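Homework help board

Subject: predicted structure for assignment chain

Our instructor gave us this sequence and asked us to write out the predicted structure in token form, then describe one feature. I got the tokens but I'm not sure how to describe them. Can anyone check?
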Amino acid sequence: MATLTPPADPQPAGGSGGPNWALIMTIALPAIAVIASFTSLGLVLMAPDPEMPQEYHWEGARLDQDFARAERAAAIDVRARLSVTPAEHLCRVSFASEAPPPDALVLRLVHATRSAFDRTLTLRPAFDGYEASCEPPAKGHWLVELTDPAATWSVRTESLGVLQSLELRARSPSGRAHPGGTVTPVIEPAATIQPAAAAR
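My token output:
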């Protein structure tokens, strides 16, 4: 009499009896996203964004003033050349514009990275221009601003390396043409030149 052998247990579709990775990933990915979202929410609640600085509300007004001074300088076609004479410890500026010459000029030299080197000079009329005693600026990146004492106009430029001779020419920030000629737009340096409390 023949013996009947029971059939073997069917194998799962995956071949081996290991974990179903597709199912695991389907469940794990959304779970990880939910956990990350709650983690981000916790960080935001524990460390909120800092408050705006107190002077934030008037920064816009200062930029408007800078814009207006640059426009005024372009309107009267301000042109100047700064010369530094180390041997005489003098800073001289030859100056021309379509407006009457001012009684004095204010020169601000602002170092791009070392505020201890910053200086403000008041230049008085002398010979064919304006001059003031000054120590030769150290070699580096300088932001240079020239204004009248009342700060009704302003011209700015920058210097890299040794500051000995530098031309300053008014350009309209808006790109509008003025009587002095066609003016092209100019982008001011990223660093802001802060007004000094008193000229030395």
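Reply (TA_rk): Your tokens look well-formed. For the description, you could write something like this. Residues 76-200 form a domain with the Immunoglobulin-like fold (CATH 2.60.40). That's the kind of observation they're looking for.
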